[in-house]
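[step 3/7] fold_predict: job queued, chain A
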Amino acid sequence: MTATHLHTALHLAATGIPVLPLRAGKLPFGNCRPCTRNACGGRPNMKTPGPCACPQPCHGWAAATTAPTALRSPQWARAWREAAAVAYHPGGAGLTVVDLDNADAIAWARKALPATQTVATTRGEHWIYRGTMPSANGVRLGVDIKSLMAYARWLGNGTGVMTPLPDAVRALVKEPSTARRAPQSLTAPLRSHGGECPHRTPTYLERGVAMAVQRITEARSAVHATVYRTFLAVLSTHGRCGCLTGAHVNRLFTAAQAKGESPRHCADAWANALTTLGL
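[step 4/7] structure written:
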């Protein structure tokens, strides 16, 4: 199976589709020790395609690459030996996958969405469109969107002709700023509370936010609690000096929503963390 998965990955990479190996359970390989909790300052938060700086297949979707030298490298060899499947980064290939998990979701899509290339999955279908958008889980019952900052399992070319991403799909993912009370609509730093700013370089704040996003992304259970605790940790460290901006908050909310959290829950968790800290 190793040779088959690697052959598939190399073929896809040659067509411009960034790929990565998946282990059992359709999960990406965990970060190597130097990259644990994103201590390396890697690239799991980039909204544009690009490989992780680590030579190993780290950082989930950000490890996806089209470089055959990386795919064949000794650093990736163990992952290919243990790989259970091949995944790709739809956003990096300029695509969006509408993941339909059951028959009801498929029936809805056939009525509500324009036809496009369709790939059968274990439980349902992937509808693949040309174009990119934010990813989100649970936009409808049994419907996930996989595009930017996400990966999808490669299941073959499917049937039908791929068509442009329609507004009907874009409308399924509401921008976080539309949520009432959503702090990600901030366009300026949080107000200062008179504390001394510890961010003597942008790297300190950037790394803190990146580590928080990684913590949310790697949550395998108790996602609600993980999101709240992470928000609390970020605000306790970065919330008093005025350096935390709406762009930083957007990244945290995007990571939480990629794990299935609703915009409303993100806003409530953020507000509760602010209240707990007296901010």
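[step 5/7] annotate
The CA atoms of residues 38 and 211 lie 5 Å apart.
The first strand starts at residue 19 and ends at 23.
exit 0
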